[in-house]
Amino acid sequence: MQRLSLLVLFFLCFLVGSGSGQPGQSNDLQTLLELKKSLVANPKDETVLRSWNSDDPNYCNWTGVTCGGREVIGLNLSGLNLTGSISPSIGRFDNIIDLDLSSNSLVGPIPAALSNLSSSLETLHLFSNLLSGEIPSQLGSLMQYLYLRHNYLEGPIPPELGNCTNLVMFSAEANRLNGSLPAELSRLGNLESLNLANNSLSGEIPSQLGDLRSLNHLYLIGNKLQGSIPKTLTELKNLRILDLSKNSLTGGIHEEFWNMNQLEYLLNLSNNTLTGLIPDSLFHLVELTFGPSHNALEGKLPKEIGFLSKLERLLLHDNRFSGQIPVEIGNCTNLTWLHLRENEFSGNIPATLGNCQQLTLLDLADNHLTGSIPSSFGFLTALDQLHLYNNSLQGNLPSSLMNLKKLTRINFSNNTLNGSISPFDIFNLSKLLVLSLDGNSLNGSIPQEIGNLEALNVLNLDKNQISGQLPSAIGKLSKLYELRLSRNSLIGDIPVEIGQLQDLQSALDLSYNNFTGHIPSTIWTLHKLESLDLSHNHLVGDVPGPIGDMKNAFVGNADLCGSPLSPCKRAGSKQQGLSAKTVVIISALSSVAAIALTVLVVVLFCKQAPLFRNGAAKTDIKWEDIMEATHRLDDEFMIGSGGSGKVYKADLKNGETIAVKKILWKDDLMSNKSFNREVKTLGTIRHRHLVKLMGYCTSKEEGLNLLIYEYMENGSVWDWLHEKKKQVLGWETRLKIALGLAQGVEYLHFDCAPPIVHRDIKTSNVLLDSNMEAHLGDFGLAKILTEESNDTNTGSHSLFAGSYGYIAPEYAYSLKATEKSDVYSMGIVLMEIVTGKKPTDEVFDEETNMVRWVETCLEMPPGSRAREKLIDSELKPLLPCEEAAAYQLLEIAIQCTKTYPRERPSSRQACDCLLNVFNNRAASYGEMQTGSEK
């Protein structure tokens, strides 16, 4: 009997062992296969789920699967770039403990079937997907870690979550949740981190949250919460981080916060409507980082601020604080940011600030400060930005500022500073980008040393008492974007070197001075310049060239003449004219010469000898020169190709480098009036952001038509973004390219008569010169070269125009290209510049094209993973102000790519918007954004 029992036991063990070795007998195999059907692998890596195959029943070895015995207890498919949806079959994993589908692109709702896992599931990671719908109400009491952040979830937070009493972490940041915060969350006694930032939650913060005694992180930033901060939150003794910023909270800051000894952040309470005083006792929290900016707080800054020796950032700007800045602030020696702008502080600036030698940002602007600028500021050698504008400061500019070699921005505007600007060692701060000293009483002359500020973008010395001549060294400031010297006592000639400031764009204001002499013709070369003011000086002579369009720029100069002012009187204008006999002789000779020239041109054209040119080339270019330089257009010299022909680089004997585009012959090409008209137009228009057409030549015998363009040595934007042959395009360069493109398109649409519709705007047609300036090329030619001979519409219809991915939707049914079609294509290029993606990228399809993808991601809350994906990874990390500008660029692009043409802005409107982004980029250092826990 005993032997029989042993045999039975051995047999049962054998059965169990066999079952363990064949997991395919489990229901989990079928569940995994059903789940796979709902998931789609990225085309770039279709192998990620290749192991999930019914031919291999040992599913415990499949990618991401963890087993305990025969059962699936863990599933981790995080970051595999999966699309598709979550199958409800996932609710059949009876023993699963950990489920992680995060960092994919899954869509659809969170299956309600997850409630079937309530007896086992402890960890659920679904963050950073594209999930929508509501949060399931039944997730089970065993749930410990619930991560749903960075999705599109909506609706209220289910009160039933209060039943998940083992919950330790709950993050639903950056969704679209609404409604009020359920008081039932107070039952989560084990909760350590609650992150509901950047949603649309409303109502008051429940006082019951004070019962979450284990809580150490509470993020409610970026919602629509109202009412006062519950005093019960001060009972959370373990709380280390409290972020209630960017809501509509009212009331004051409770004194009881000082009892929260673990509190490292009371950052951030900013961007609310809090009132009253800051309790003095709060400054006994020595670990505190404090930032209640953008409220209506008032009172004095207490001397207890000196207790915060570990404080790194103090952000009190845009409140109503008054009184003196306490000298004890000098004890905060770890400060890196001190931001007290837009308050009512008065008295002297404490010299003890010189002890805060870690400071990189010091902003005391827009207050009522008096006295002098402390010489102790010379010890702040890490300082990057110093803003003291709009106060009542007096005295000289301290020479100790010369020690601040890292300074990039100085703004002392609108004070009562006096003393000489020269000699002033500030002109040796080679990293300086912005120098604004306007609205003071500074005197002396501008020294030649100003030429040392080679990085300078903005120089504003308006409204001072500066005298002497404007030094020629001003021409060395090649990166200058804005120059304002008005309302001083400058004398002498305007230096011709001012024409070297080719980046000057925002303004050149020399008005209300005592300049004499002629306006230098070099000003005409400042093609970017948008605002010129030379009024109220003593200038004489002609107004040079095209700048005469700005009539108000010249008023108050009695001896200036020429368009748009009164005509200039020429010497000898009253003398007797030419005799009648002389006129007859000259007219006859002119007629004979004109006839002879016409015959000569026809003969030479038929023989294809000298190439037609419009003056852009240094010398006449001959057909033979081009053939020799390119070895008869050998592919060795080809630098590009497109639908209408190939482009070659030709280094001519005279040292000139040109681009030659070869186009196949059309029998009626030269007789086509549209071609003649467009070539003539493109050969005469001039804009710094359009590629110059230097000439053309045709040979019926060779079967060739050649178009001669200026050579762009840095290739196209397409090359830089997608070919990866060159270094990365930085953000500043991309922004400059976007603006340059818009200005070129605006010129075609508004400043050409008749207007020119490009019809093929794309990154491969945006070329870059040696300075990385954008030049739009190939405009109008696709339409011209393929136009039907019987097409009588001179600029709207053709058989072909544009490139796939860039073509406006209305063109598909109308075949009519308008200015708004160009705006659409330009919008696509703007998206490409920011995202680094091609409009034909394989991640896009008919349902989700580039426009829809950008629009969808932009709707996500700030800081969300989907939104961050919009910015080309090669650009990161960006400064906050740069990141803001990138998103603004995409917002403009969305407007440009509206479905209906009437909803799109004109190119001029788009250009104005881009210009506004560009103008604001230098002076803005952005508001501090406190990141919430990820």
TrEMBL record:
A GO molecular function held by the record: protein serine/threonine kinase activity
Residues spanning the membrane: 583-606
EC number per UniProt: 2.7.11.1
Protein kinase domain ranges (all copies): 633-919
Protein keywords: ATP-binding, Cell membrane, Cell wall biogenesis/degradation, Developmental protein, Glycoprotein, Kinase, Leucine-rich repeat, Membrane, Nucleotide-binding, Phosphoprotein, Receptor, Repeat, Serine/threonine-protein kinase, Signal, Transferase, Transmembrane, Transmembrane helix
Top enzyme category: transferase
GO cellular component: Casparian strip; plasma membrane
Compartments (UniProt record): Cell membrane; Membrane
Region forming the signal peptide: 1-21
Protein's membrane topology: Single-pass membrane protein; Single-pass type I membrane protein
Predominant location category: membrane
SUPFAM superfamilies according to UniProt: L domain-like (SSF52058), Protein kinase-like (PK-like) (SSF56112), RNI-like (SSF52047)
Family stated for the protein in its record: Belongs to the protein kinase superfamily. Ser/Thr protein kinase family.
Subunit structure: Interacts with CIF1 and CIF2.
Entry protein name: non-specific serine/threonine protein kinase
Recorded name of the encoding gene: BnaAnng05190D
